[in-house]
Model the fold of this input.
Amino acid sequence: MDDALVIGGTRFIGRHLVEELLEHGYDVTILNRGTHENPFADDDRVDRVEGDRTNEAALEAAATTVDPDAVFDCVAYQPRDVREATRLFADCEAYVYVSSGSAYGREDIPKREDETPLEPCTPDQATDDSMESYGNRKAEGDRAVFAAAEQGVNAMSVRPPVVYGPHDYTERLDWWIDRVNRFDRVVVPGDGTNVWHRAYVEDVAAALRIVAERGEPGEAYNVGDRRLVTLSEMVELIADQLATDVDIVTAGPRELAAGDIELDDYVLYRDYPHVLSTAKLAALGWEATPPAEAMERAVDAHLESDRDGSEHGPDREAEERVLGILDTF
Done:
């Protein structure tokens, strides 16, 4: 494969994917609406086609003018997007859909591609655009991939959990980095052993390329850090990269109530472990970046940005009330 079309390509996963493809000798075209700054505007190795991927005519025009070998669909948020793309790019050597670990419908540990069932999706959910139906829509997108493969399309999907790293516009990890950078005492909800699988963004980009090159049509592949860390360990990794000491203070529901805080107010907290098996992807030759190295790059990118994740998590004043209560015990 030589020519790749990335639907999206300018913000986070897509941006890293374009860089990954360029490093491996692909000619890359990105398709997007142009609502976000294009980091490849001055890079003559990357062509751009303007268009809304939800517009059938725009997508059909891209299929005709670009004629890619591989298509990477980073911004398919409704099942109809996937069905349309797999129809228009049916003759490509690979169509790879960015799905999600949220597509799984049962709390297995770990969640396996060929064993753990997917979320159901009603007609109303399929056309929704709220976060409440996100996993349902991603699951239905996976089913569209499987259906296309049964018709002979070389379609596959990749399922990441929470993705982190440079250019992460969600700022979920930034909230925690900011906390560790500014305070000596960091409140961690629960007992600190919470596990929510995460995936370093460059590893996700590599997974998408490898699945396109080596994956099997009709298959889904989980991607995520190969060594999982708990929430407390994540805070410690951040502190190590900031070369600072931090006192981790765990707090349960009763203690957090002193600040009118709930466990779920903390970003990246999940009561039940969310773990994806990545063995199937690793069997294709994919390797993950060690957690310390990935966190170093994430922290460096945070420090160079103006992101603080302030829209996430409780405010510090509320946490100080919790710390005050804990100090009396």
